[in-house]
Amino acid sequence: MTMNLNERLAITAVGTCTCVGQNTQQTSASIRAGLNRFVEHPAYLSIARAGADPEDPVPPAVAMVPTLDPELNSQDRLMQLLITAFRDLVHNRQFNRSMMARAGFFLALPSDDPDMMPFGIGTDFVKDFAEQTAMSPFPVTKVVRSGNTGMAELIRVAALYRGDGQLQRCI
Hints:
Elements: H1 24-32, E1 38-40, E2 47-48, E3 57-58, E4 61-63, H2 74-93, E5 103-108, H3 125-133, E6 140-144, H4 150-163, E7 169-170
Parallel strand pairs: 5-6, 5-7
Antiparallel strand pairs: 1-4, 2-3
């Protein structure tokens, strides 16, 4: 694939689900207002603060999404975050199923390193997403597990597919 350097890639819609908003508008307003939702996690055992007396346990502070069950395992939590953000994106862009026929699906998941193995994010994640959302398979699906750079990497890959005319839109 080659990309014409005169081509531009435009982000025309965003879908989000964060601890400070269930959609893009709520999240943006909360960020502008300086809000956060760091709270003590209700389901985790207390831990000792680094450098503190080990006999003085404190519960971990986390940025919880209020609509998600705090006891979800990591894979189910990521799935619910993805589904909520996807619904927000579809709503913002007013996508319909026929528009998805020439859309690619590009997903950045947490890094695939030994520290992430206990979280059980498997190779069937995209298949499970399609089943839970009743989506037909996308003509192009790319998943990366390269950590913090995943989204930037996928924007570049999506631009190549758009530049070659293989896809009308990239999600």
